[in-house]
Amino acid sequence: MLLNYIKIAWKVLLRHPFYTFITLFGISLTLTVLMVLTSFLDHLIGSHYPENKRDRTLYIMQMTQQDSSRTSRQSGPMSFKFLTEYAKSLKTPERVTICTFINSSNAYVGSQKIKLNTKFTDADFWRVTDFEFLEGKPYNEQNIANGENVLVITDDFKKHYFESATEPVVGKDVEIENIHYKVIGVVKASPVTRPFTYADVFFPYTAPKSNYQNTGMRGGYVAMILAKDKSDLKAIQDEFQSHIDRIPLPGIQDGFKYAILDVKSEPYLENFVGTIMDGNAGLKTIFFGVIAFVMFMLMGLPAINLVNINVSRIMERASEIGIRKAFGAPVKTLVWQFIVENIFITLIGGTIALGLTMIVIHLINTSGIIAYADLAINLNVFIISLLVCLIFGLLSGVLPALRMSKLNIAEALKS
């Protein structure tokens, strides 16, 4: 029976090419936008290179200090000393790494200036992340203890700095801000949308200008905590919070007297949204509400337009419906048939949209709009896109099917 419904739907599509074009154009355009958005969101918050273990990683991004009346506050990254004392000392995690966010430096090739995004890290950075080393290896605890001026660079920086992009560069000299460093490794670059791992050049935290010896609580460092298993995340959060709760209050930071101290270890999405919303639960609700509304508009408005087209298409088949009703076809069967037909048409539009999405994603990845972008249609994106197709098909098919079921047999046979 299902195969017969699909055959009928195919015949209907061939009957009116113009209606078919309008229908498939509306479906494919809408689903292309949704698939690209889904792919971008997955790229932004999913577990991808080099943060493939995001599902069992907690992020410590900022410290917030407030006075007792909550009228004044300071917030920002922490010092290396603070994170060493309160995060590195955790017993539950598999590993903890401390690194800076994105800093900036300059290098020169002849008279040409290369603007660099740089990052200072500890040795565990390379164990918590999954960078692909194209040459050499990461610096380790011994390199750091010896105070060696070594660095890891990306393949993109290698192309810009060295004359040959194919010759090995491990052991060669790089001059950055008038300081000479030895290249110890070359990695595949990370996208700019992953600020915990994105950089052109990676230095050990003991390198010049890292400010790792700052004795205060605030500084330029953040941390990533890798759990042995996802089930350990709650225990790690509790352990970290117990460490924070032991900090004596009130305190003074750079002349600011604070009575409230807030430092959270959270999964990436919660950390990302929490930072944007500045920890305000009401703003988080509004944020997700706006996203839900935008998604509804993207799906709802095209679905309403498609409903009108489907109603017209179904009304043209009134005589067919009347004959089937006259021969005893139950309303439930007719409604199910038209819903199946609409889902089938939507899946055709979804297939077209899949091809368009792959083209759009390729253009985004190669355009340079997002540095080192790696948007893709992976299993998660495909499953979500398939569900969107089915929901879209149902949204635009149920109302016309119900409208059809109310047709009077006599009136239908006259049309």
TrEMBL record:
Q: Where in the cell is it found?
A: Cell membrane
The residues covered by the ABC3 transporter permease C-terminal domain are 293-409
Stored Pfam families: FtsX (PF02687), MacB_PCD (PF12704)
Any one cellular component term from GO for this entry? plasma membrane
Q: Which GO terms describe its molecular function?
A: transmembrane transporter activity
Residues in MacB-like periplasmic core domain copies = 20-241
Q: What membrane topology does the annotation report for this chain?
A: Multi-pass membrane protein
Annotated InterPro entries: ABC3_permease_C, MacB_PCD, Macrolide_Exporter_MacB
At the top level, the lineage of the source is: Bacteria
This chain's protein is named FtsX-like permease family protein
From which organism does this entry originate? Spirosoma arboris
What is the predominant subcellular site recorded for this chain?
membrane
